[in-house]
Amino acid sequence: MTEQKNQPEAAGFLNPFKWGKKKDKEETKAEKAQANPPVVQSEPTPTPPPAAPEPTPVPTARTHTVRSGDTLWDLAVEYYGDGRKYTKIAQANNIPNPNLINIGMELTIPD
User: Fold this and answer.
1) What is the pTM of this model?
2) Is the distance from CB of 54 to CB of 84 less than 8 angstroms?
3) How much is the pLDDT for 44?
4) Contact 87/99 with Cβ under 8 angstroms?
């Protein structure tokens, strides 16, 4: 029987996985060691404490001093990018008639 172990596989068939052959005890131990390496348990890494939330910025009221030629529509376009928001400026400054603003008025521009 030892003659069969040393002989090549029959008719050109290569059996790379050695199916159907009995394993030697030495091969079995070596293969088990390679297949299942020992698992080393390490201490779990502590999770860092959650970061403190960033404080929300307090909206600061912008101001604008009215110059000659200013209109609430133009100011809304300048500060908001949309002239239709001129009513926000008028309401924040208690202006009853948005068509009448005076030069030198200090207007609060809400966010």
Assistant:
1) 0.46
2) no
3) 76
4) no
